[in-house]
Specification:
- By secondary structure, this protein is an alpha/beta fold.
- It has 2 domains: 277 residues, Aldehyde Dehydrogenase, Chain A, domain 1, CATH 3.40.605; 177 residues, 3-Layer(aba) Sandwich (Aldehyde Dehydrogenase, Chain A, domain 2), CATH 3.40.309.10.
- A 7-stranded mixed beta sheet has the order 16-17-18-15-14-20-21, sandwiched between helices. A 6-stranded mixed beta sheet has the order 11-10-9-12-13-23, sandwiched between helices.
- The longest helix is centred in the first third of the chain and has 25 residues.
- The structure holds nicotinamide-adenine-dinucleotide.
């Protein structure tokens, strides 16, 4: 087998970059390690400024052709990519699970179907875009959605292919070309996506994939003068760096960042549903940006809530994410595990009580944890842990619930459990969050806007919001026949 190929669970993956339709190797590599058992999944080409510049050049060269491709043809190719994803869904699922440790059953049932849906949805949306005309004193104003140019898309490791295609699909649908940089801890499915896209007939250079550490290849992408859009999903510190780098050319940015979202449980809620919603926050070992990690419970039901939560959480099965019976898999990397445990140990030292968990497990595993006796201004309540760690605080009335819920620098999401529709209306109106769920979690229509308030993000993507971002929206005003300047 070529030194540039690796095999994961029987699936062969090219470990080189994909630039201008060709596989390109770097002189250096980095080792991609499985969070399941620490085994090596392959030596991955480690991109530098040189490969970054080459990928942007390829995207720039391919742009005029793809931008001029009629929308119906672009949509046809994107649907073919979706078909390719469906055909290889099982392979993508098993590779993703080995690479980032999230549950195989989630990849099979929810995530890979959603990856294909991302392409079909934006292909359909492209053909439905509203080109409505307006008329002012006889002048028509025609709105067009022009492709913007090469886009740099930078993604994290917690839901690699789903988050990448959430950006790749609308960027391509809009007529742009793309340089995708997946996270260094989970690069494999992006490489498979490059194969699938090429097989579906996407022209060379329209989708480029470069791998490597953000600190080594990032600036070559985000400070590049030929890049017209940057969409980033990841942490707040990296976002600050990217925003500063993009400032050189005022490149428009979309930032989908971290969170510290609340779950508000009122005494009038269906308590079993509220407990289910709370336990659900351990999904993907808590490595979910939207996770409602701060549980806020009305004091009168707090003891009963905690009893039922503890009972349910203690029955969760933690183990190999490839096993269909597993509920919680490993955390992504020893460094992430260190970070999680640091937060928990500091919280315990500051007086928090671990009602559930509070310690490491074997290998990359961290025990699902619930901490009580935490102060609103403490680190564990204010900072994103990104692990299976929840806190529980109580409140006595709606005002206090809203004050606690809004009391961090984040504003990604919020969930409200209540049996009173009027309360739901009152409370949701006062919450600062990009997405608010009432008696549910995670469900979302791709037509709806997605993004964060405060430091959880800048901008919104989804439906028209994606096209607003990935297009140069243009208004062409045409005079009526015979119009004169000094008429
Ligand atoms: P991260 O910021 O460390 O890395 C994200 C990506 O940025 C990686 O591909 C990384 O290589 C790249 N990067 C790092 N430094 C860079 C630089 N200087 N220039 C360019 N790129 C650079 O984040 P992470 O640890 O991979 O992901 C976890 C974070 O992502 C959490 O904060 C989580 O909340 C957030 N997240 C947000 C959403 C959302 O939609 N809001 C979704 C998932 C994850």
């Amino acid at each position: 087998m070529s030194e540039h190929l690796t095999t994961v669970a029987g699936v062969t993956i090219d470990t080189r970059h994909f630039i201008g339709g060709e596989r390109v190797a770097s002189t250096e590599t980095f080792t991609d390690v499985s969070p399941i058992d620490g085994s090596s999944l392959g030596e991955i080409s480690r991109g530098t400024a040189m490969e970054g510049a080459a990928a942007v050049a390829a995207a720039k060269a391919a742009f005029p052709g793809w931008a001029a491709t009629p929308p119906a043809e672009r949509a046809r190719i994107l649907r073919a990519v979706a078909d390719g994803v469906d055909e290889r869904a099982e392979e993508l699922a098993i590779v993703e699970t080995n690479d980032n440790g999230a549950l195989l059953r989630s990849h099979r049932r929810g995530i890979m179907p959603r990856v294909a849906h991302n392409f079909r949805f934006f292909a359909d949306w492209l053909l439905k875009l509203d080109h409505e005309d307006f008329t002012t004193r006889g002048h028509t104003n025609h709105v067009s959605w022009d492709p913007a140019g090469p886009c740099v898309l930078i993604t994290p490791w917690n839901a690699p292919l789903m988050l990448a295609t959430w950006k790749v699909a609308p960027a391509l649908a809009a007529g742009n070309t793309v340089v995708l940089k997946p996270a260094e801890w989970s690069p494999l499915t992006a490489s498979l996506l490059a194969d699938i896209a090429a097989g579906a007939g996407l022209p060379a250079g329209v989708l480029n994939v470069v791998q490597g550490y953000g600190s080594e290849i990032g600036d070559a992408l985000t400070a590049h003068p030929d890049v017209r859009r940057i969409s980033f999903t990841g942490s707040v510190p990296t976002a600050r760096h990217i925003a500063a780098s993009a400032a050189a050319h005022l490149t428009p940015l979309s930032l989908e960042l971290g969170g510290k979202s609340p779950l508000l449980v009122f005494a009038d809620a269906d308590l079993d549903l509220a407990v289910d919603l709370a336990v659900e926050q351990y999904d993907n070992a808590g490595q979910v940006c939207l996770a409602a990690t701060r549980i806020l419970v009305e004091e009168t039901v707090a003891a009963e809530f905690t009893r039922r939560f503890t009972d349910k959480a203690s029955r969760l099965r933690q183990g190999d994410p490839r096993d269909e019976a597993t509920d919680i898999g490993p955390t992504i990397h020893p460094r992430q595990l260190e970070k999680i445990d640091g937060f928990v140990q500091r919280a315990l030292a500051a007086g928090a009580r671990a009602v559930v968990g509070g310690r490491r497990g074997e290998g990359h595993y961290y025990a699902p944890t619930l901490l009580t006796d935490v102060a609103q201004d403490s680190e564990i309540v204010q900072e994103e842990v990104f692990g299976p760690v929840l806190t529980l605080q109580t409140f006595t009335d709606e005002d206090e619930a809203v004050r606690l819920a809004n009391g961090t620098r984040f504003g990604l999401a919020a969930t409200v459990a209540t049996g009173d529709p009027e309360r739901a209306e009152r409370v949701t109106a006062r919450l600062v969050a990009g997405t608010v769920w009432v008696n549910c979690f995670f469900v979302r229509d791709l037509q709806a806007p997605f993004g964060g308030s405060r430091q959880s993000g800048v901008g919104r993507e989804g439906g028209n919001w994606s096209f607003d971002f990935y297009c140069d929206v243009k208004n062409t005003v045409t005079a009526p026949k015979g119009w004169k300047v000094h008429g």
